[in-house]
Fold this protein.
Amino acid sequence: MDELKKVFSCQRCGFCCHGETTVSLDLDDQQRMIAELGLSREEVTKKYWRITDGIVQMKTVDGHCIFYEDGCRVHRGRPWRCGQWPFVPAIIEDYDNYQIIKDSCPGINQEVSYQDFCRCVSEYMKKHVKIRC
């Protein structure tokens, strides 16, 4: 993780929590979130998740994730994909995606070149299947 700190340090600004869609939750994500909330699966499903064609996602409210309220209310139990942000494949596959995300995410080191960013993230991703910042 230390190598990633050269290119990114989360500011917990919530930019990544905004939008009309959220990430899909795998079984580990679901179990971690249930434990963090201290509720039953049924309660969490009814109150916080939407399920479409068997895909579990967090609900959105007012254009952001249901758990975003001046920060993530389930930060320790958040999905691995949330913890992965901004190290998504699209950011190292396309310079335009990188620039858009860099311009909106204050955690990305503005002094690091795109090439150095990609090299650092790619090397880390070779060693770790799931990145969690």
